[in-house]
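Action item from last week, closing it out:
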Amino acid sequence: MSKRFLLSALIGVGWFSLVLGQEYFPKNDGVKTPKNNYTAFTNATIHVSPEKVLQNATLLIQKDKVIAVGNAVTIPKNTVTVNLAGKSIYPSFIDAFSDFGVTKPKRAAGGGRSAQYDASREGYYWNDHIMPENSAISKFKYDAKKAKELQKAGFGTVNTHIHDGIARGTGLLVALNSEGSDGERILDDQSAQYFSFNKSVAKRQSYPTSLMGAMALLRQMYHDASWYAKGNSNTRDRSLEALNANSKLVQIFEAGDKGHVLRADGIGDAFGIQYTLLAGGDEYENIEDIKGTNARLIVPLNFPDPYDVSNPYQAGYIALKDMRHWNQAPTNPKVLAENGVTFSFTLHQLKSPSKFKEQLIKAIRYGLSNEKALAALTTVPAQILGKENQLGTLDPGKQANFLITSGELFEKNTTLYENWVQGRKYVINDLGQKDIRGEYDLVAGGITYKWSVTGEASKPKSEIKRDTLKYKSKFSFKEDWLELSFTNPEGEERHRMTARVSPDEDDIRGRLILPNGIESSFNARKTAAADSTKKDNGEMSSPEVVPMTYPNVGYGY
């Protein structure tokens, strides 16, 4: 073999080893000019926190931070100004109990008839369902598609973890900044330590086989951890080492109902641990004991769907306790607030993030105040995670995570325009589209009709009447172009209209095609602005809630 060939081979092997050994590949895209410009949002109603609201105020941000907020903010020269007259700004929401971006564990394959009694791992705890050494960061991959769904629901930050096992390891706090890198959006790679009463789906070890067994295993785990910390073991146990190392983190326990909340809190009390507890939505049934735990709760808003009782034979199979829970569950947040229980909201167990606003408005309709609702989505989860100095409000120095809306956040017809995360804009609906909602006198073909435009500013609805006669109409409004058609109740005599809506005028004028095909023009003169206080009959009426009984089932008293 020639010396030249040998030298080339050695260089090739060395380069290949270097590539395999390199863990981080920097981007060499040239020198980038940092974006240091300011952005000022002026003339807005700004909800700095649940308790602090400023009218006609300015929010000034730079990069990912809030610089100033108030009624007399000095705007620097190199500032992009956005006029938000008539609009509102709120802090983006925080979910303290999520599985965002974390790979779900695969269910273990069956092992035949024989049960597995021993652990499958060496060097770890003797029970496979105890896995405090796990970390969400090791299984995390940012999911831009899912992030978009969460942004549309108003969320800017999520606290995610591996939803598997009795001791689950540590979680991860992530900003939903799809344009950034993991280095920017990962706020804490050890945000909390997690527990539950549920075994791992990825492990086959039989024990524990009951709730009582899971509780006993948790107690044994803590006793073993204390014993191990005193140096009594001759061998290493990576699980107990991780459990002890993470003992100073926030401790979050997935309980899941009022009974499990009390059981989990009892275990924590026995070992000097105050868990933050994932609730189940039925805490109102046992509120005095729940209050006595002094625990902070993370509350899902998965209220039961109404039962179909149209068939009397099927209705007979619905238990009274289930009907009562359907009726009373929406009062749970109000009852918690009235009794001084600290709680945040989560998307956990909700079928889709798009259902969140509907459920939240329902909780408010059943008595929860707007202030408490906003706190449960902003300041409280920030406090639970120990990040109140970074998140939860729009005070100077905190992350520029905020929502721009058409008005009151918790109104049904309020439009969410933009969700800013770490100072980056994510468009939900076009902020530039004019709000044309209101009452009009529509003149078409020499006849005057009453035209009402209602619904959300981004998704308006149309209703056309003449005296008491209601006409069938189709309506669309996008990028300042309006298309409207209507027919009489018999579906005849179709009028078709098209117009470009002027941003500076309330009246709308455009082209009209009459039922006979003749082209003409129409004019819609605005007679009244949209009534933001007007609500559907179902929203105006106070919901009827049946009284509690003890027990809260049939034949309770």
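Closing note: The mean pLDDT is 90.
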